[in-house]
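Researcher: We're teaching a course module on how sequence relates to structure. For the next exercise, students receive a sequence and then see the predicted structure as tokens, so they can try to spot secondary structure elements on their own. Here is the exercise chain.
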Amino acid sequence: LYVVAAGLHPMRALPVQLDCGTNNEDLLRSEQYLGAKMGRMPDREYYPFVDEFLCAVKDKWPNALLQFEDFSSDHCFALLERYRRQLLCFNDDIQGTGAVIAAGFLNAALASGVPLVDQTIVFVGGGSATIG
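Model: And here is the predicted structure for the students to work with:
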């Protein structure tokens, strides 16, 4: 997305996946599963693991933009709250989706000629941003 849509040179982006295990028994038994063959890390291990990674990123690249993507709902809000004042970061599932939806609301109001305050908006679905 950053390369194709924003023109960021691929050498300036570093995709990283933190493998914290899975509780899906079928995946754990599968020979084709490439992830760590372990159960999902409990929170007492998960948060220090993520902390260590994020501190290393900040030490190495203090001005880097970190995009949190597909963090579980039980972790995403806590991580965003914990780091948003320390690192240049955002959670795409929460803030990115929310920004796109807000832009849709604003443009729908403009296109319809009906002020946003007079619109009826219904949120339906799941996901971190309540849109799904």
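Model: If you want an answer key for the exercise: The mean pLDDT is 86. The two ends are 20 Å apart (CA to CA).
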